[in-house]
Structure formats: structure tokens, C-alpha cells
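FORM 12-B: Structure-to-Sequence Request
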């Protein structure tokens, strides 16, 4: 991606951390609430790879085309899942945005700067509006609410079952999604 090296490295760290947490969630269990963890890990690591500063590594065109193919295949897989989930639609849009960004970078790496002349700033603008709204919405959901007074318990907070597993750390899921939304919002203007 084009942009400052410091911002690029911060995005790499943020996205790789989010991808690692999603991968950890995936490994922690296979219940229904973990079904999106694999796709989110792919998004996190893919965004980390795409955010590498251009001054450090400038991938050839075929790498960007490979990214587009991987994210396109993941989008097709999401299309094949059950319908009706708002998060599924958000995840599909994120994968398609990754295909779009990889395609834009492939066009730049191939020496053609006609992508912006063909109307892609409109797509970029629409994605920026969506992700700005998503980041505000997801961030507002993380604001603490007044906690009800807990009932007295006779043991550790988690019911005496020992340490809380990664599968039960539900507070990390929206934080990771918010982080990836912020990263997407940051990466889109650098196209």
C-alpha cells in the first residue's frame, strides 16, 4: 500500500494481532460462534500482508492477483453459507473490498493507472462511507454500560471452572472486528 512507513507498520501489527486472535479463537473450539473465526483470521493476516510499506517490499503484479484470487474464493465460500446474518453480509463486503484493493494494487503494479479513470474512486468512496459508519457503530457497542449489581457467588468469578478459555473471551470478538474495520478505513484512501 502507498502511504507512510510508520502507519504501514502500525497497520501490519494491528492486523496481524487481530488475525492471530481470530486464529486462536478458531483453534479454541468449533461451535457455531466460532464459524467466522477462520475467515476473520484470513482477513487479518491478508490485511497485514497488504499493509506492508511499499518502501520495504513492493510485490510483483502476480502477488496482488494471488491475493485477489484468495479473497475471491473466500467470498464465494461465504456466499455458499446460510443466509440472513448481518455479520455474514459484513464479512462478504470485507472480502470483496479486499479483492477490490488487491485488484487496484495489481493494476498499479502492472503499470496501468487507468483504474481511477474507470470510476473506482466511487467504489472507494462507498467503501469509505460504509467502514466509517461501521467503525462508529462497532466502537459505540464497545462502550461500557452500567453494570448490574452481581449476585453473590461462592467461588471464583467464572464459576470455579478454572481459567477462562480463549473460546469464552467474547469481548475480543468485537474488538478484533473493530480493529479490522479501522484498518480497512485506513487502507482504502491509500489506493
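FORM 12-B RESPONSE
SEQUENCE OUT:
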Amino acid at each position: 500500500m502507498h502511504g507512510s512507513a510508520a502507519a504501514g507498520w502500525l497497520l501490519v501489527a494491528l492486523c496481524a494481532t487481530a488475525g492471530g486472535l481470530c486464529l486462536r479463537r478458531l483453534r479454541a473450539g468449533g461451535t457455531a460462534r466460532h464459524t467466522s473465526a477462520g475467515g476473520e483470521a484470513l482477513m487479518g493476516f491478508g490485511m497485514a500482508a497488504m499493509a506492508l510499506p511499499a518502501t520495504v517490499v513492493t510485490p510483483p503484479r502476480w502477488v496482488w492477483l494471488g491475493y485477489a484470487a484468495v479473497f475471491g474464493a473466500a467470498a464465494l465460500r461465504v456466499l455458499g453459507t446460510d443466509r440472513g446474518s448481518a455479520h455474514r453480509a459484513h464479512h462478504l463486503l470485507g472480502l470483496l473490498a479486499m479483492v477490490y484493493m488487491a485488484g487496484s494494487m495489481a493494476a498499479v503494479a502492472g503499470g496501468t493507472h487507468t483504474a481511477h479513470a474507470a470510476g473506482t474512486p466511487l467504489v472507494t468512496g462507498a467503501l469509505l462511507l460504509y467502514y466509517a459508519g461501521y467503525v462508529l457503530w462497532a466502537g459505540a457497542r464497545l462502550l461500557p454500560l452500567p453494570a448490574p449489581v452481581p449476585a453473590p457467588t461462592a467461588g471464583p468469578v467464572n464459576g470455579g471452572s478454572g481459567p477462562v478459555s480463549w473460546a469464552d473471551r467474547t469481548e475480543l470478538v468485537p474488538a478484533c472486528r473493530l480493529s479490522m474495520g479501522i484498518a480497512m478505513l485506513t487502507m482504502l484512501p491509500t489506493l
